[in-house]
Amino acid sequence: MKVVIVGGVAGGATAAARIRRLDEQAEIVVFERSGYISYANCGLPYYIGGVIEDPDDLTLQTPESFFSRFRIHMKVRHEVTAIHPDKKTVSVKNLKTGEEFEESYDKLLLSPGAKPVWPGLPGMDSDRLFTLRTVEDTFRIKEFVDQNKPKSAVMVGGGFIGLEVAENLRELGMDVTIVQRPKQLMNPFDADMASFIHSEVRKHGVKLALGYSVEGFEEKDGGINVLLKNREAIHTDMVVLAIGVTPESTLARDAGLALGMKGSILVNDRMETSAPDIYAVGDAVQVRHYVTGEDALIALAGPANKQGRIAADNICGGDSRYLGSQGSSVIKVFDMTAATTGINETNARKAGLDVDTVILSPMSHAGYYPGGKLMTMKVVFEKETYRLLGAQIVGYDGVDKRIDVLATAIHAGMNATDLKELDLAYAPPYSSAKDPVNMAGFMIDNISKGLKQWHLEDAAKLPMDGSVTLLDTRTVGEYSRGHIDGFKNITVDELRERIGEIEAGKPVYVICQSGLRSYIATRILEGYGFEAYNFAGGFRFYDAVMNDRALIEKASLCGMDK
After folding, report:
1. Has 512 been annotated as catalytic?
2. Which domains does the chain have, with CATH numbers?
């Protein structure tokens, strides 16, 4: 059996190695357009910033090492220009010599990836304009930075690449601005959770110009102007475009293969295309979202590698199936970590789901053990079924651990209330006896048993005509430092003695700093016959979202900020 693979990064390289492990006699040829294979795409921004010092560390394998280990021919600087399904051949061009030839195959695997969006705007031919997708792109940016010592940069786009490059350029001492049309960074997050990311990047000196459309570029005064709609141009030394990627599906389209959304390659759960003996994996293919069941494009390394393994199994006569992607991801944002899995509240509602959320701010480990730091968690679940749909976490420590637990729970089909049952490892330096994931489960279980909440979007709609009681249960000092207008201050510890100050027969909306003391107050009020609602997230969350406050690092056991 002869297998030809188009693309030697992520899914392509994984598939090649897997095919060899399953079939020692197979002839395997990989064509890679760039000069590098199996490179660490996610590490490229950190080489620009000097965190990764040796460029050789960016490549996990070389063509020579791959051949030595697997006896697989990795032909770099070779571009496949056409696929001929009727003849079972591909046309190939050697980019070093210009030679063109045809290569036959028994099985063909397409792993072409995705290409950066390159808009047709004026000034796109500037040498001060960059994208970041390949090792060659990285070297070009690094060379420009090292040779020209730019003092400023503009990132167009605030997704994963945009944020990572912005951080690394800022760490080099550059004046960095992020510009984009959407009004929030990091689209996988809800706007309320993204506000913590905004605060973190601003805290480190990155300027944000959100909600502005780029209309073009103009070289001027030894730099380049970023031309914006309805705003004066931003003058800078260099620009990095990171406004998204689009599936690299030209080969598939020209060969008559069926395409999906945004021109992606259509595959089934065996990673088979519409043409016999042709498979496709990675950023170029349309997948099923694991949570919603809807078609999706999810350009992440983890899914690409899994798809490569599945395609390899099936090429070798197996029957492996890809169940879908749930978009689990994590990103370092200066001192903060932000992570997400499943779907956010915004997209859940767009999908027609009736959802609820819990928001909590637990410590990364036991509060009495030194070094613990806060994180803010948002867990999304379906109202009637309590099906776990997604989660977002921002914090300084322990974020990756919790998001992976929640990702596993979603994949396992657990209900949100089941989170309270998880038996998670505990020792004071690592967690609390009630892990943050367990705490989320306790909160959702309380809701399933009748506990009522109110949310951030309800704040502006609360009646101020006296028909409801608005109650802040923090200390007098906390209240004086900031509160929501109209809220009466009675500390939770005084509530029982002062219960007569709360008018009977009226609903009570309760808030504290983190949500813990207000939860206790809600229980007290219910015990006295009141209809009480606890604010999801606490005033800390409200203040961060509404007033652009940075995430607090430490808190007491009762939820007071330190």
Report:
1. no
2. 2-114+246-315 (3.50.50.60), 129-243 (3.50.50.60), 335-448 (3.50.50.60), 453-546 (3.40.250.10)
